[in-house]
Amino acid sequence: MYSKLRDQMKTKRHYPALKTLEHLEHTYLPQVSHYRFCKVMVDNIPKLREEIKDVSMSDLKDFLESIRKHSDKIGETAMKQAQQQRNLDNIILQQPRIGSKRKPKKDAYTIFDTEIGSTSPKSEQDSGILDVEDEEDDEEVPGAQDLVDFSPVYRCLHIYSVLGARETFENYYRKQRRKQARLVLQPPSNMHETLDGYRKYFNQIVGFFVVEDHILHTTQGLVNRAYIDELWEMALSKTIAALRTHSSYCSDPNLVLDLKNLIVLFADTLQVYGFPVNQLFDMLLEIRDQYSETLLKKWSGIFRNILDSDNYSPIPVTSEEIYKKVVGQFPFQDTELEKQPFPKKFPFSEFVPKVYNQIKEFIYACLKFSEDLHLSSTEVDDMIRKSTNLLLTRTLSSSLQNVIKRKNIGLTELVQIIINTTHLEKSCKYLEEFITNITNVLPETVHTTKLYGTTTFKDARHAAEEEIYTNLNQKIDQFLQLADYDWMTGDLGNKASDYLVDLIAFLRSTFAVFTHLPGKVAQTACMSACKHLATSLMQLLLEAEVRQLTLGALQQFNLDVRECEQFARSGPVPGFQEDTLQLAFIDLRQLLDLFLQWDWSTYLADYGQPTCKYLRVNPVTALTLLEKMKDTSRKNNMFAQFRKNERDKQKLIDTVAKQLRGLISSHHS
To answer: Could you tell me which residues belong to the region Disordered (predicted)?
Structure first.
């Protein structure tokens, strides 16, 4: 019997050796205890018992080390099985999982089916992990029972239990596994760089808990639910903290989406084993916001490229095929255009269908993230609408504003932008329908977020309109810089200045392009241009640098103002009532008439009355201009004081100037 015990020890069959030792100690040795050789055996038994204890503990340590090294493989296997189960569920359902309830818990414990206390030769010899070749994804995924041999744990537990040291064994096992858990939960510093980094991290965590779950269900108390729950709480908080940190470094929406799918698989796998994973799904909603931000950055570049490469010209159509292609890309209906023969043109440029389709692509990208998050249709709808609103009000709006504010942008481009944004604004209702069709949530549902597309396009259009007004004014200023009046001329001109004739020709050709613009825009632009021109001409006449001017110069100036009035009367833009546009030049007209007709008696007599002929002439303006003429009268002719009519004229100017000053002071008081 003793010889058999030594053989069992030598071949590392420790549990049978312990049984033999028990038989030897309690059954056989007491019968022959009076022999001296038996006393030697009796003395050796405690040593042999300690040796069995030490060797089995050594086996356990080897097992724990192997498990630590191979957690990755065990977790990978468990996650593959969860993926296969999910694919099977999806095939059965034949519909997206959006808003679906969580799948029923499958039999989690089929992943290990090693029998307790297995004493097969394999179990006896192996310290924990068996070599299994990687299987192809479409083949049967090996269960983790094919990867792990738990017999060292069961043997050691049994041996320590028999030896009355079960508590020591339990404490040692739990302490070692806690240490391993902390190591597993420490993410590598470069985890965020690739999806594989995250995958390996998840595999190790899943592997760890799959092993613990199996131990829980197969050892009757080596670990208990409280211990597992405590470990899982720690793992959950550390995992979520690590994911928050590392995912924040990611700027690629595709990687964020892949990470989300991986986290969902990770959560689904552990849920199958009974671990609560709600916090992981809550954290995914945080990552969703980050995903939305990375999408917005990506689409900012897409919109910038579309707007930069556009030719800002109506899309030409030469055939029915091209016409149908454009209409297929963008919701546009115009019976008049349909009737026209080819070739013809759409009113908008290419950026309209391109931008519209990219908004739809963005909506699809948002939808991808919401899949498998166990959200209701309403939650998905709300998420998509909020993200799309950010795309419209922030990203697209900013891209449009940048184009509108570009230094070198021309009036033709601005006009096309106004036309384009008008059509995009009309398409917003189709985007609403598009989202409704995807999520099956009707727009009239309570709390449904409305799309702010109309606001975005209206704001862009208003900005483009303002830019047109500014641009026109700048062009007018450029022409006015060419103005070269001889303020001291004595000659009477008979035609308008060349610079002004060119300016009016430019305005005519510009307003001809405005035919496609909404009526009010064209009218406002025209009125704004005329007012700016009138104000600029008035400033030209009154500027301090012009210290003197003659009646001849004033008459030349009058010819230029008449040219402007003629332009206003010609109706460059339809829709103005009678002389509305001419009113832009009324201040100039009344001032020039007052001076050229020298009608001061009427002006001074009627001043302040609503029916006054020169109602628009400010006395300060009149005095400023009069002072310039007074200087001329004095300095232009050295013999002026000797000529009676000149002296009379000088007195008249002085008298008028005095009366004007009196008018101004009484007005101010």
So the answer is: 111-139
Q: Which residues of 209-232 are buried (b: 16+ CB within 10 A; e: fewer)?
A: bbbbbbbbebbeebbeeebbeebb
18 HSE (CA, 13 A, CB side): 20
Residue 276's SS3 state is: coil
Residue 335 confidence class, pLDDT cut points 50, 70, 90? confident
588 touches 559 (CB < 8 A): no
CA 125 to chain centre: 58
**pLDDT tens figures, 405-460:** 888 888 888 888 988 998 998 888 898 889 888 888 876 665 667 777 788 888 88
Q: How far apart are CA 331 and CA 426, in angstroms?
A: 9
- Same fold? 293-313+349-464, 482-596: no
Considering the domain delimited by 482-596, tell me its CATH architecture.
Up-down Bundle (1.20)
Q: Check: pTM over 0.85? Answer yes or no.
A: no
Indicate whether 99 pLDDT > 50.
no
Residue 469 and residue 634: Cα distance in Å, rounded? 43
**pLDDT tens digits, residue range 601-642?**
888 888 888 888 888 888 888 888 888 877 554 544 444 444
Task: Break the chain into its structural domains and give their ranges.
Answer: 35-89+145-275, 293-313+349-464, 482-596, 598-668
Torsions phi, psi of 238, nearest 5? -70, -40
Please give the CATH architecture assigned to the domain spanning 293-313+349-464.
Answer: Orthogonal Bundle (1.10)
Residues 252/66, Cβ–Cβ less than 8 Å: no
Coil vs helix vs strand at 192: helix
